[in-house]
Design a protein that fits this description.
The protein is mainly beta. 4% of the residues lie in helices and 43% in strands. The chain has a 16-stranded antiparallel β-sheet that branches. A 6-stranded antiparallel barrel has the order 3-4-7-6-5-8. The protein starts with 11 loop residues before the first strand and ends in an 8-residue tail after the last strand.
């Protein structure tokens, strides 16, 4: 220990990094197979005009999968598990040359789960695309690392104590974030799919947020300068490795919001993201805002500590609206791994002023209770005092044989999706009670929940096939109005639309 200064909350920053397929180039070099360890190494393209211009954070991508494809023969494609990585090399399990044929040059793409998007180095420090604002965070509980241990007696006498203890594996759990709702991003991460439109893009915006329309699927991406010529897209929606020239892609128009359509993803996988959590002393900024020593038991980092939680997915989302309050989102997370950032890593791309984060300038006012409307059973309910909508993905973590690293979850699989709407309301008749006793789904009327700041700034959720599960009519403690508790279970999302200036970075 060389410093007496303690870490304090004033120096803690948490931000989001999108995870996406990472195209590493179509001229990636393969080395001869290490037959002793059954491993192969690939080397990224060196920087040049038109190259992708990134450094990888060492060992951040351990446990991810990488696609290797012959540039000259697209039918030859294999997927390998990443054992380790340096700034410019990746070592995988398997014999690439033996599987793909005698070749040195291949295309390489890291698959999205657990793979935060890398960017060009900042002040010669590796980094990821994590200078993205999380939103109006009220409380944040980082995921917690839990170690599963084994205990053995060893059939040895002489002591009543255990004979031996050992570590089986790590599980990262318990992460949660509560927001004042000001954007639709968490609905995308919860439901899983998204498309968007935008009118009148312009090429004069300098925010660095770009709309790509060159590929089959449009995407919202970042536009950054690298060590090569021009700008590049991060993540790269069309793996071309070609510099992004101004004007070739549409940029956000100052007065036109995104028009989002968010839908149910019925695959077993959901979009993932990383959380970059940094602890810094003494108002570190610029080049000093980086991990500067090797983190180990003998040389711990004493100035800037950074932990990257990869493979984060929304297990459940709750939208809470209470009389006179702002609308709140709370998300419960599942997480793939907790990665301690290595030496020469810079959190948040060395952006220490949160006002410079992407999306910070957009929609800092949350949706409010009085912005909301609810329609059930074909009629608008005007006497709702509070309520909540919960979406549960029931994600299950899995470990596969061959994943040699016990600190990393191999996969997350989404299970049964469930919706539940709970309302506290005043009633004028017995209709809600009668509907529950009649039983059966309402397959005719659409259940609508909408929060609207303006005609071009709203979140609109609609459900069908819903059933009334319970109606609680309490005996009042006073002579005031009787508040009824109503619980409804929708089975199907009818639609989810939003207009917002908030950019959801994605490559679906």
């Amino acid at each position: 220990m060389v410093s007496n200064e303690i870490f304090v909350g004033a120096g803690v920053t948490a931000s989001l990094a999108p995870e996406a397929r990472i195209f590493l180039g179509d001229d990636v070099q393969t080395a001869a197979t290490d037959t002793t360890n059954n491993s192969s190494t690939v080397t990224l393209d060196s920087y040049a005009a038109g190259d992708i211009g990134i450094d990888l954070v060492p060992n951040l991508y351990v446990g991810c999968f990488i696609e290797i494809e012959l540039a000259a023969d697209a039918t030859k494609k294999n997927i390998y598990l990443i054992e380790s990585n340096t700034v410019s090399t990746i070592t995988v399990t398997g014999d690439i040359r033996g599987d793909m044929g005698a070749t040195t040059d291949v295309k390489a793409t890291i698959q999205s789960f657990g793979a935060p998007v890398p960017t060009p180095p900042v002040n010669s420090k590796t980094t990821i695309l994590s200078d993205n604002w999380l939103g109006l965070v009220n409380t944040f509980t980082p995921p917690n690392v839990e170690v599963e241990t084994g205990e053995l007696n060893l059939v040895a006498g002489g002591s009543r104590n255990l004979g031996f203890q050992f570590t089986k594996g790590e599980t990262v759990s318990g992460g949660s974030i509560e927001f004042s709702m000001n954007n639709p991003m968490w609905l995308y991460y919860t439901l899983g799919s998204m498309s968007f439109t935008m009118s009148s893009p312009t090429s004069t915006d300098t925010s660095g947020i770009t709309i790509d329309t060159d590929g089959t699927n449009s995407a919202i991406i970042r536009r950054l300068t690298d060590s090569g010529a021009g700008h590049h897209a991060y993540p790269d929606p069309t793996p071309t490795g070609v510099a992004l020239a101004d004007g070739t892609h549409g940029l956000i128009h100052a007065s036109n919001p995104f028009v989002y359509t968010i839908s149910e993803n019925n695959k077993g996988t959901l979009p993932s993201f990383a959380l970059d959590v940094a602890y810094a002393k003494g108002g570190k900024s610029g080049a000093d805002y980086s991990v500067q020593t090797v983190q180990s038991s003998s040389t711990p980092e004493e100035e800037v500590y950074s932990r990257i939680f990869t493979g984060c997915q929304v297990n459940s989302l709750n939208i809470q609206f209470d009389e006179g309050q702002e609308v709140k989102n709370s998300v419960e997370l599942v997480t793939r791994s907790a990665f301690d950032a290595p030496q020469n890593y810079s959190p948040q791309r060395q952006v220490t002023d949160i006002t410079s984060f992407a999306n910070y300038s957009e929609n800092k006012i949350p949706y409010l209770f009085h912005d909301g409307t609810i329609e059930i059973y074909g009629q608008t309910f005007a006497r709702v005092k509070s309520g909540s909508l919960t979406i549960n993905n029931n994600i299950v973590g899995q470990r596969f044989i061959g994943n040699y690293n016990n600190q990393i979850m191999s996969n997350h699989t989404a299970g049964q999706r469930q919706y539940e709407l709970s309302l506290t309301l005043l009633i004028t008749d017995t209709k809600v009670w009668d509907l529950m006793r009649e039983g059966g789904e309402d397959n005719t009327n659409i259940l609508k929940l909408r929060f609207e700041r303006s005609a071009t700034d709203f979140v609109d959720l609609q459900f069908k096939d819903y059933i009334t599960r319970s109606v609680s009519v309490p005996y009042p403690d006073d002579k005031g109005p009787i508040e009824v508790e109503l619980t409804i279970s929708p089975r199907t999302l009818h639609s989810c639309t939003s207009q917002s200036r908030w950019a959801i970075f994605n490559v679906d």
